[in-house]
Amino acid sequence: MKKQKNEEIKRKENRKNLFLIVLIIISISVCLISLDTIINRNIEREQLATSNYSQWLSQHCVCLEKNLIYCPEGYSLVGKLCLNKTISTPTLNGCSKYNCAGQIKLFDVTLQKWQNQN
Predict the structure, then answer these.
(1) Where among 60, 93, 109 does a domain terminate?
(2) Residue 69 parent element (H or E)
(3) Residue 77 · residue 89 · CB < 8 Å
(4) 26-61, pLDDT tens digit by residue?
(5) Per-residue pLDDT tens over the stretch 101-112
(6) Final residue of a domain: which of 60, 84, 101?
(7) Model confidence over 65-113: pLDDT tens digits?
(8) Residues 56, 69: one domain?
(9) Max Cα separation, the chain?
(10) Whose CA is closest to 78, among 110, 69, 40?
(11) 73 and 43, same structural domain?
């Protein structure tokens, strides 16, 4: 009788522990998915901001150098070609250095953003 009660208590504890483990796994998964969504939104915002600023620079400043290599929208840079699934196209050259009323703006390729030249 006592043995049966002990076994029943152990089964209940095991179920409780299993429930807690599943709950923890679900909670961690939800947190990771939320974090991934937040990170992707921030990356998209930064890319949009860089794109808008590049457009503003091209309209309001004088291009001094064209060393920025990029691809048309929908293509990815692979080596020295722009690829879109099975289609390839040559890369485009964009302005990498602007003179904005005496202030020089350089595009930092590693940071993927515009910097003031010292």
Answers:
(1) 60
(2) strand 68-70
(3) no
(4) 999 998 888 887 776 766 666 556 667 788 888 888
(5) 888 988 887 887
(6) 60
(7) 998 888 888 888 888 889 988 888 888 888 989 898 888 988 887 887 8
(8) no
(9) 92
(10) 69
(11) no
The pLDDT, as a whole number, for residue 45 is 64
Tokens of 42: 């921030």
Question: What are the tokens at 71?
Answer: 């691809």
Average the pLDDT over each of 8-12, 17-21, 95-99 and give the range with the smallest value. Answer: 8-12
Q: Do 45 and 18 fall into the same domain? A: yes
Domain extent at residue 8: 1-60
Mapped onto helix, strand or coil, the DSSP state of residue 79 is coil
Note whether 70 and 117 are same-domain residues. Answer: yes
99, two tokens: 């003179």
Q: What are phi and psi of 106, to 5 degrees?
A: -115, 145
Q: Name all contacts of 111-114 with Cβ < 8 Å and 24+ positions apart.
A: 112/46, 112/50, 113/46, 113/50, 114/50, 114/53, 114/54, 114/57
The answer on 31 and 5 residing in a single domain is yes
Dist. CA 106–CA 35, nearest whole Å: 32
